Amino acid sequence: MDISIVIPAYNEEARIGQTLKAYAAEFTPRYHAQWELLVVLNGCIDGTEDVVVAAGRDCPAIRPLIYPEKLGKGGAILRGLNAAVGDVVAFVDADNMVGPQEAAKLFEALNTSDVSIGWRRPDLSLATERQPWFRRLASLILPLWARFFLRLPFHDPQCGAKAMTKGASDAMIPLLHEQGWALDLAILMAARDLGLTVEEVPVSWLHVAEGSKVQLRQASWEVFVATWRLKFKKKRPT
Question: pLDDT per position in the chain (238 positions), as tens?
Fold first, then answer.
């Protein structure tokens, strides 16, 4: 298996169908049967499973991993990383914020790095209207906090599109314990602690607020609290 893509999904019936079609159209011609797309359904109570199963009938690379309980975004991603069998593995969001052509850039970057992360550069936004001020403010504050408090020198540490070699993924997983929105930061800290190389890849992106499961204030507070856990965690690799 060449590549694995993981998508965490919680009640994404209205959005995930188009995302799966887009990824199938991009990656099937490239990799034929040598790729997989794992949709980790956690605690879904809508029709997300039906949408994913239907997509799998059209594209056998797509398959659901079903968990009846809510795992949190980070928990769902970790289940997907553990189940992935590709030589390289990535995770992206169900809303197609970072589209498949942009995700493909992350895989290309793995030719020279262990981990690649999307950088939603403001000038590459595909939105026709500016985001609300509080969302723009959050997107400025968190990278600064991560840079100075956690010593993570990245422009967009919380971008939901990241890729890594399977070896890097397997090495990091034992160090990853965040089940929520802070998993992205935990991955970058684990990569740093293990001496893995990380490359930022500028990507075009489109934020669609409709149907979003992100409660910005709650998620921001959750990530802020998690940074203290990550900063002072006792167990580090040797």
Answer: 799 999 999 999 999 999 999 999 999 999 999 999 999 999 999 999 999 999 999 999 999 999 999 999 999 999 999 999 999 999 999 999 999 999 999 999 999 999 999 999 999 999 877 766 666 777 788 889 998 999 999 999 999 999 999 999 999 999 999 999 999 999 999 999 999 999 999 999 998 766 555 566 778 888 889 999 999 875 555 5
Q: Which long-range CB contacts under 8 A does 104-107 form with residues at least 24 apart?
A: 104/26, 104/27, 104/30, 105/201, 105/203, 106/161, 106/162, 106/163, 106/201, 106/203, 107/3, 107/163
Round to whole Å and give the CA distance between 109 and 234. 32
Q: What is the pTM of this model?
A: 0.92
Separation between Cα atoms, residue 182 and residue 179, nearest integer Å: 8
Q: Which amino acid is it at 150? A: L
How far apart are the two ends of the chain, measured CA to CA in Å?
31
- Nearest-5° angle of CA 106, CA 107, CA 110? 95
Topology of domain 3-231, CATH: Spore Coat Polysaccharide Biosynthesis Protein SpsA; Chain A (3.90.550)
